[in-house]
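May I ask you to comment on the folded chain given beneath this request?
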Amino acid sequence: GVQTCALPIFVFSSEVSRYSRMFATLNDLDTPEGSVKTFWWGARTQALNDAVAAALKTGSYWVWFISEDYGFDRDVLTNLISRNTAMVSPIVVEGQEPFLPTAWTAVDGKGGTTPLLLNQVTGPSSLIEVRGASVTGMLVRRAVFEAMGAPWFRVTEDVPEDVYFYER
């Protein structure tokens, strides 16, 4: 059968009209048959956990996360699914200088991260193993969430929810 995909789309701003281009891009996104696009509003960490719980409840095989202020190609999701791995993320860069990727190669004892450097990326079709990456763009199989158990995301004194997720 078809492996459906829940698409929790996180929109944190009350100024949704600012993101009309992103919504148009999502409308044109190539998705597996039976996919459901769901928009989650509210506090980021709670919204992430609520989206995962809803995806598990509805039987989704995949969960893909994207934030309102990032652009992406129409085929990004099908390309990520074709990687056939439990978790995968595109290279996403910060929105301001020095434009570092939001993926990291190490975590120190205080929750700080060592960013992936763009010169470590060898080509558009390469898979690069990293210690973690921003939730934005991340595609995760259901089995990962089931093995972890809730809460999947949590902010602590030492780490943001992205680092918490990957370290678990």
Remarks:
- Residues 9-15 have pLDDT under 50 and may be disordered.
- The longest helix spans residues 44-57.
- The longest strand covers residues 5-11.
- The chain has five helices and nine strands.
